[in-house]
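Lecture notes, part 5. Sequence design as translation. It can be helpful to think of inverse folding as translation between two languages: the language of shapes and the language of residues. The source text, in structure tokens, appears below.
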């Protein structure tokens, strides 16, 4: 599966943004989908993941309650709605896909998008 992330940009603190990740290829609905992010000088970290049907979601501690992951298996797209953005959310956001069981480990994901930059100004 090939992944294309979009929707990043510059936003003020407290604002909102929605990222999209469009998948091409077969059987999108068979994949666990996730978002990770990498801030300058830091390691890539887990943000959120969603299971095949969209019925189960998991979040990193720093975004829980502010971010929402969702998917549309007809449009082959996964979304990340980000509310109450803070400067520390500034990062390149990556979508990722894996088959099998869900994981928070980036090493477990086989397919990666190119990343989209989110900048939150104070």
């Amino acid at each position: 599966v090939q992944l294309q992330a979009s929707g990043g940009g510059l936003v003020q603190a407290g604002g909102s943004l929605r990222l999209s990740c469009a998948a091409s290829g077969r059987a999108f609905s068979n994949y666990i989908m996730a978002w990770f992010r990498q801030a300058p000088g830091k390691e890539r970290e887990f943000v959120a993941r969603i299971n095949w049907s969209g019925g189960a979601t998991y979040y990193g501690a720093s975004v829980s309650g502010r971010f929402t992951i969702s998917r549309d298996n007809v449009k082959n797209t996964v979304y990340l709605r980000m509310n109450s953005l803070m400067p520390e959310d500034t990062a390149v956001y990556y979508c990722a896909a894996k088959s099998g069981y869900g994981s928070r480990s980036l090493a477990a994901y086989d397919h990666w998008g190119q990343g989209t930059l989110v900048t939150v100004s104070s």
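The translated text above is only one of many valid answers, since several sequences can fold into similar shapes. The first strand starts at residue 2 and ends at 6.
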